[in-house]
Amino acid sequence: MTDAALPTGPVTRSSVAKVGVATALSAVCGYAVLYLAARDLDPAGFSIFGVFWGAFGLVSGAAFGLLQQTTREIRLSRHNDPSGHPITRPLRVGAVVGLISAAVIVATAPLWSAHVFAESQLLSVVLLAVGLAGFCLHTSLLGMLAGDNRWAQYGALMVTDAVIRVTVAAVTVVVGWGLVGFLWATVGGAIAWLLLLITSPTARLAAHLVAHEDTRSFLRGAGHAVAAAGASAVLVMGFPVLLKATSGDLGPTGGVVILAVTLTRAPLLVPLTAMQGNLIAHFVDQRGHRVRALLAPAALVVGIGAIGVVLAWWAGPWLLRTGFGSEYIASGALLGWLTAGAVAIALLTLTGAAAAAAALHRAYSVGWVCATVASALLLTLPLTLQTRTVVALLCGPVVGIAVHLVALSRPAT
């Protein structure tokens, strides 16, 4: 690709709008899959599906570290003189990482699969491994598209993934495929990257871009990003697992708390996670003003979050009872505080993206790991389940935010 073919300029409102629309469509498709599964399966079958859905969410969440590292390096390659620099092909790195990750899952499955998957253990392990391998290529391509300002294709890849999932789920309901069909639906979108490359010349051009650094350095940065993304996946996708591990038998109260946590965080964290490419591209463009570049997105998150807190406090209890049944009872105060906790995690996501864009890989990963460990420890406090959940979600992320801000405030070397 020639320099003339490269889109130039900072991240624009148009790019954010494109990804925002794609995020909304993806979220609708995701909730549609969960709805179809809940309607088609009995509660026991849905619980098995839910565990697999969560397991894939955890491993694919870690793979988002490849998106962050790829976005940063492709973005920097647009600004720097490539002469004399080694090159790395991120899509090839993603393929290798995906294959190794899949092999690790298969090799270690005898140690853990029986404890995680109650039925269809072999199929679940195979789908988890193959799905993760495909998703590593998916996130690598997303990073290349984001780094190259190809936001229409970035959004198309997100939507294709989501549409494939809901299509497989709908076919499963029609033909009566049952649990197995929903397991396939969970990972079906992992081929979206291949479909986009086949159908989009622009995506094929972006896929040939290179990072102007050696592969070892690229992998070192990606390793920190994957570690941080994995920790964030535990804190975000795997929070119910943390709650169960630190609380034992959760009972009906635990079910209400888990549902409330999921519902109060989705409006902020789903779009913010999907816009990781936009955020890192923005922070790379503003890398001379690390902390200042955080102000506008942080103010937007806090503003939206404040509105969410008020709405959750005022209308949340009624919405919960009306939408899910009279057995789901939570106070407005609990829902408001849980929404505030979602704001804290959203701010941690922002500071983490800024640290990743500034190549502060160690601080980035340490911040997320510290936040996760702090939240887990706070969940062991001798308080009621609702209270310690709020404390963990509010205070744990603050530890990680502090780590990121200290690193970002230091002069660039």
Automatic annotation (TrEMBL):
Membrane topology: Multi-pass membrane protein
UniProt-listed InterPro entries: Poly_Biosynth_Transport
Localization (cell): Cell membrane
Superkingdom of source: Bacteria
Keywords, in A-Z order: Cell membrane, Membrane, Transmembrane, Transmembrane helix
Transmembrane segments: 19-38, 44-67, 93-115, 121-141, 162-184, 190-210, 222-243, 255-274, 294-316, 328-351, 363-383, 389-408
Name by which UniProt lists this protein: Integral membrane protein
Organism: Mycolicibacterium komossense
